[in-house]
Amino acid sequence: MPKKYKSEALAALHESMSGLHDIGIIPAKTMRNFDESCLTAVKAMPPEKIIEVRTKSGVSQAVFAKYTLGSPNCPHCNPSQSNLML
Predict the structure, then answer these.
(1) What pLDDT digit, counting tens, does each position of 5-51 carry?
(2) Structural domain range at position 73
């Protein structure tokens, strides 16, 4: 999933700082501050929508979890493990 920046200027700044972090010049705490300042907030998604997206994408629960950095055992990603009424 590509990163979404608040502006083009903040994207350039973040990419520069990310490079400095990769080579050890900027500590992780400072990089987290840049993430908060430069990246747009991630919106919460209800379990029903997660199931819908995974089902429409046609991928297994394990593949979906890998792409979304989630857990393959997440009950929200698998209707058979969820108490949701679908």
Answers:
(1) 899 999 999 999 999 999 999 999 999 998 989 998 878 888 888 88
(2) 47-81
Residues 6+ apart with CB under 8 A from 71: 65
Q: Same domain, yes or no, for 28 and 51?
A: no
Q: Where would I find the H helices in the chain? A: 8-22, 28-38, 47-57, 61-68
The token pair that represents 21 in the structure block: 């972090």
Spatial separation of the C-alpha atoms in residues 30 and 68, rounded to whole Å: 24
Beta bridge partners of 5: 39
Distance separating alpha carbons of residues 81 and 33, to the nearest angstrom? 36
The residues with which 23 forms a beta bridge, in sequence order, are none
Residue 41 tokens, joined = 């907030």
